[in-house]
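Inverse folding, one chain.
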């Protein structure tokens, strides 16, 4: 199974691709999509859609994992993020690739161990447990002027979150498999139902591809 995780945003977006075979995993790639150069919202939406489309063409994922839009205090920001989410989702839907929505709380739970973790906690947990480089996934942005030139101004966690989406997707899907085998889990039934739908879609599309190639 190959998972493409996309953490959408209005200025930057993160992406990550994880291969999972049995109990083994391999990171095939991850990176930052820069969107701040785009002039209008339409340009930004198009740029994200094109980037996700290119990643799908390059890596041919089995499943695309997206961060589920959540309620926010600012309606304007929420609308923009939902539009960005839709642009990424459409790229997968047009290729008939199953999509798994992951809530921020689920991402944090399965990477840092609790749903209230900070973004930096997620990044450090991914480095500790999955061998990722901190600066690669918590991308440093530097001061370019003034006396602090060269110092770190902030970190962008879009890549870290995209990697976390891949990890969380594996755990969510594993939950469904253990449920099918009569196992138990602390994850709520809604997540299990979501995983079941993705597994059915992935299985059907995989069988269709094999039939077409036969």
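Residues assigned per position:
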């Amino acid at each position: 199974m190959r998972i493409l995780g996309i953490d959408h945003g209005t200025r930057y977006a993160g992406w990550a691709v994880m291969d999972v075979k049995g109990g083994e995993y391999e990171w095939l790639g991850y990176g930052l999509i820069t969107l701040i150069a785009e002039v209008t919202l339409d340009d930004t939406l198009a740029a994200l859609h094109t980037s996700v489309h290119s990643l799908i063409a390059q890596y041919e994922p089995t499943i695309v994992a997206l961060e589920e839009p959540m309620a926010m205090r600012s309606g304007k920001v929420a609308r923009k993020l939902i539009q960005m989410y839709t642009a990424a989702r459409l790229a997968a839907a047009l290729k008939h690739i199953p999509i798994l929505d992951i809530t921020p709380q689920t991402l944090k739970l399965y990477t840092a161990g609790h749903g209230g973790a900070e973004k930096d906690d997620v990044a450090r947990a991914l480095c500790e447990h999955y061998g990722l480089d901190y600066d690669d996934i918590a991308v440093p942005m530097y001061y370019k002027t003034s006396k602090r030139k060269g110092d770190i101004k902030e970190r962008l966690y879009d890549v870290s979150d995209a990697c976390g989406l891949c990890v969380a997707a594996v755990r969510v899907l594993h939950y469904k498999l253990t449920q099918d085998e009569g196992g138990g889990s602390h994850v709520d039934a809604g997540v299990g139902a979501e995983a079941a739908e993705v597994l059915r879609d992935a299985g059907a599309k995989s069988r269709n591809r094999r039939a077409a190639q036969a």
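The helical segments are 41-59, 75-94, 104-112, 119-130, 134-137, 158-180, 189-213. The CA atoms of residues 67 and 102 lie 5 Å apart.
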